[in-house]
Design a protein that fits this description.
The complex is a heterodimer of chains A (about 260) and B (about 120).
Chain A (H helix, E strand, L loop, with lengths): L2 E7 L5 E8 L8 E5 L3 H13 L3 E5 L2 H7 L7 E5 L7 H10 L7 E5 L4 H9 L4 E4 L4 H15 L7 E4 L2 E4 L4 E4 L2 E3 L3 H12 L4 E2 L1 H9 L9 H13 L7 E6 L3 E6 L8
Parallel strand pairs in A: 3-4, 3-5, 5-6, 6-7
Antiparallel strand pairs in A: 1-2, 2-4, 8-9, 9-10, 10-11, 12-14, 13-14
Chain B lengths: L2 H5 L5 H13 L3 H25 L3 H18 L2 H15 L3 H4 L2 H17 L5
Helix pairs in contact in B: 3-4, 3-7, 4-5, 5-7
Classes of the chains: A alpha/beta (about 260), B mainly alpha (about 120).
Chain lengths: ~260, ~120
């Protein structure tokens, strides 16, 4: 198999967490959160996405999702409309009101009801899919939503003025001059820039950059973040601010010129 | 059940083919889904019956909706359609549409399970 699946079960058949992890040799580890109470559809959708190369974390309801890690670390969410306790619509409204405006959300609906689709899109959904999802359409819609929200990658370069990642050479330029980075520093910085403006959880960084589980007790992230902040002017001087969000993780965000010296 | 109901195929072979394709990526998926379907449909059926007995139509509607979804995902087309009819009947508060609803659902779940276990694509 191309991935290993693990399940945290509360009862013999209600899977509250299904994690599909891809083979370690995959380079872009985009993570999809699936919130779906139908266990059959949840498993089918998770397998479809894992087969397409995504890392998938699936949950039976929004409370489990929030308990597990919340939105941090996810690149896109697939959310069922009819969920127990908190509906998909209530979840979406709360998500957008919390300031999480850039995380793409695709709704899963049992029927293509025009009024329902309009409500979902107006509440901040990026797209919708009718269940049961067709594999090709599901993956195409997910990729399209990711294309719209992830930073544009032009050739082998990824630019975030004044920084420029030369991806194939794994080098970073600042104002056209190379900034020497270790491979780990490069991976960490690239991960944070690709998710700029969003919180990257400690668990996500350990998993995606260090390739270890969340149980590993390490101060390595703090050390690396502190070093990058100092060396690259990521306290605001460069127009970018890398900050620790207490109990959530880290966020790299563009800052206003007036905030650049803070 | 009506003549119309009996003329509807029990299973949606297109959905089963999708599951079969995924099985190549994740061996054992089909058996896992079958177990999930069996437990999930039994649980929702029990909820549906109990809710109807207590005139709790909101809960009965949610349970019928859940059966509709899980059945469609599994390719149990006829069960999904029956559950959709019952969901609509509960929503409209139609006592006549609900009469024997739980019995019909139970029978249809058994039929779907039997045909799914037989693996019609084999």
């Amino acid at each position: 198999m191309g991935y290993a699946a693990s399940e945290a079960t509360l009862s013999p058949y209600r899977m509250d967490v299904i994690a599909h992890r891809r083979a370690p040799d995959c380079n872009d580890r985009l993570r999809i959160g699936v919130i779906e109470d139908d266990p059959v559809h949840r498993e089918i959708v998770s397998t479809m996405l894992a087969r397409a190369g995504f890392e998938v974390h699936a949950f039976a309801n929004t409370l489990d999702f929030k308990r597990h890690r919340g939105t941090a670390g996810n690149d896109l969410l697939l959310v069922d409309w009819e969920l127990p306790q908190e509906t998909g619509l209530e979840f979406l409204i709360a998500l957008r009101q919390s300031g999480e405006m850039h995380l793409p959300v695709i709704f899963l609906t049992a029927c293509e009801d025009e009024a329902l689709v309009v409500r979902a899109l107006e509440a901040g959904a990026d797209d919708y899919l009718v269940k049961p999802a067709n594999p090709a359409i599901l993956v195409a819609r997910v990729r399209a939503a990711l294309r719209r929200t992830l930073p544009a990658q032009v050739g082998p370069r990824l630019e975030f003025d004044p920084f420029c990642f030369l991806l194939s050479q794994r080098r970073l330029l600042r104002d056209g001059v190379e900034a020497k980075l270790t491979p780990r520093e490069f991976d960490l910085l690239l991960y944070l820039f690709r998710r700029m403006g969003r919180i990257a959880s400690r668990e996500a960084l350990l998993s995606q950059v260090w390739h270890v589980g969340p149980e590993v007790n390490t101060r390595a992230i703090d050390t690396y973040v502190s070093r990058l902040r100092k060396r690259l002017g990521l306290a605001g001087e460069s127009g970018w601010k890398l900050e620790r969000i207490y109990q959530h993780g880290y966020r790299l965000a563009k800052v206003e010129p007036t905030m650049a010296s803070t | 059940m009506s003549q119309d109901h009996d003329s509807i195929p029990v299973l949606d072979l297109a959905q089963l083919e999708q599951i079969q394709q995924l099985e190549q990526f994740k061996p054992g998926l089909r058996a896992q889904l079958l177990t999930l379907f069996e437990h999930s449909s039994a649980e929702h059926l029990q909820t549906f019956s109990a809710a109807l007995a207590e005139d709790d139509h909101a809960t009965a509607k949610r349970a019928a909706h859940s059966i509709k979804g899980v059945a469609a995902s599994m390719g149990a087309m006829r069960l999904s359609m029956l559950a959709a009819r019952l969901e609509a009947a509960v929503g409209r508060d139609e006592a006549s549409g609900l009469r024997d609803g739980a019995t019909a659902l139970s029978a249809e779940i058994a039929t779907a399970l039997s045909q799914l276990r037989a693996d019609p694509l084999r």
